[in-house]
Here is the input.
Amino acid sequence: MSGPAVASQLLRVEGLCSGYGRSQVLFGMELQIGPGEIVGLLGRNGMGKTTFVRSVMGLIKPTQGQVVFGGLSMTGMAAHRVARQGIALVPEGRQVFGNLSVLEHLTAFRRPAIGGAQAWTPDRLFGLFPRLAERRTHLGGQLSGGEQQMLAIARALVTNPRLLILDEATEGLAPLVREEVWNVLNTLRQAGHAMLVIDKYVQRLIGVADRHVIIEKGRAVWSGSSDQLDADRSLWARYLGL
Here is the structure.
């Protein structure tokens, strides 16, 4: 499979096998992300995308394979230790705290930037998400679904990660709010943030990501550039049901 050279990889996943109890979901999954690179992880529902993310984040312990981030093996590492290495997850379903205000979310999860990078602070994030600035004193449970999604992204960014993972960040959002999220992802792209993005809106993801990996039944079955994916619509029909 194509990908950045090993020496320049930020995330390298090789031969990853994982699942839930006796139910195996991933079968030798492979994926690499370079510094500042954006990779889309695509596939129909139930093919293993979220299981892959949970395995990388330490929420599920893999049975085989390795996860290497920034040259450090993280295979089997506890989730809180994975987060401290500089990976942040925007989970499917948002999972904001209903009894914390917007500002409390951004204060409680704040961590310093790594390696001299410009830090994401609450004030800087309020510039990125003007709606959150207007609602900074509102509790998470008082926000709309779109506002909660913006807060979930801001909460991840305030940890100042080296890699941001977004699992279905635009799912269930109104079209205008969804467009705001895509605009934010383009801003992060221009700022050089490395990201792994799972999203069903393939055409929009093509405009953001550098490369894509398609997963089918727990295995990576295709990898290529956005231009390659855009040009071969047979892949859409065969693996994405589009």
User: Anything to note?
Assistant: The chain is about 35% helix and 25% strand. The beta strands are 11-20, 23-33, 38-42, 64-69, 72-73, 87-90, 163-167, 194-198, 211-216, 219-225.
